Amino acid sequence: MRLLVSVADRREARAALRGGADVIDAKDPRRGALGAVRRDVLAAIRDAVPSACPVSAALGDASDEHAIARAARAAAGLGVSFVKVGFAGLVAEGRVRRLAGAARRGAGERVAVVLVAYADWRRVQSLAPERLLAAAAAAGAAGVLLDTAFKETAVFALASPQRVGAWVAAAHAAGLFAGLAGSLRGSDFATARALGADLVGVRGAACVGGRTGRVSPARVAALRALARAAPPSLVAAFV
């Protein structure tokens, strides 16, 4: 199981690398669950990370096909491996499929698209995680991530391990890798491993001072050790 650490800038990217993060995720935590960093910040993060280490970029919640295609194309041009896209406020599966397809076209063949489902989907008025899987498969996404839009509640407080496990299994059956995030702590990693997650994503657990604090190499190293206690993951096939 791989460890993704969300970072807000070059300095945090270096801290996450020192701790042994497997994937460096560019995200502005002040702008929500999928807050995109500025283009110059993303470029600085990519430059700070060795080419062998994947960089993902959060693109926010999609609402316009042309805008999300442009954002994906811009991130791809900077050399990222993944782009992450959410769909808060959208409950029409056809609309989500079109937006996901636009992101896929913008990203091109060399950059993987990851669609983000929200465990608190009712509150954020988005597709249920199970319904998002169909959109991901139809759009040619590489994977899906189960996250939370509101960070005061952890993913396993919103969805039972049984339900999450079924979601992970369904993603794998559709040929997608499956990641888990959403206020995860180290104590959640054993559950994520047991459920077959390929990747776990963290921000607050890797920081001193909470999710708007600073990434700590020591915290990342401790989380990496927990994530490493698992078999190789499907996500490796896409990076």
Give the helices and strands, then pairings.
Elements lengths: L1 E6 L2 H10 L3 E4 L12 H10 L6 E7 L3 H13 L4 E5 L6 H15 L4 E7 L2 H4 L4 H11 L3 E5 L7 H4 L2 H13 L3 E4 L8 H6 L4 E4 L4 E2 L5 E2 L1 H12 L11
Parallel strand pairs: 1-2, 1-8, 2-3, 3-4, 4-5, 5-6, 6-7, 7-8
Antiparallel strand pairs: 9-10
Helix pairs in contact: 1-2, 1-10, 3-4, 4-6
Descriptive labels:
single chain, 239 residues, alpha/beta, TIM Barrel, eight-stranded parallel barrel, two-stranded antiparallel ribbon, 10 helices, globular
Q: Beta-strand percentage? A: 15-25%
The chain-level structural class is alpha/beta
Examine the secondary-structure arrangement and name the CATH architecture: Alpha-Beta Barrel
> And the CATH topology?
TIM Barrel
Overall spatial form? globular
Determine and state the CATH class: Alpha Beta
Overall tally of domains? 1
Rounded Rg: 16 Å
Low-pLDDT segments? none
Number of strands: 10
Helical amount: 40-55%
Characterization of the model:
The protein has ten helices and ten strands. The protein has a single domain, classed as Copper homeostasis (CutC) domain (TIM Barrel, Alpha-Beta Barrel). Strand 7, helix 9 and strand 8 (199-202) form a beta-alpha-beta unit. With 239 residues, it is of the alpha/beta class. Helix 1 packs across helix 10 (217-228) and helix 4 (93-107) crosses helix 6. The strands form two sheets. The protein has an eight-stranded parallel barrel, surrounded by seven helices.
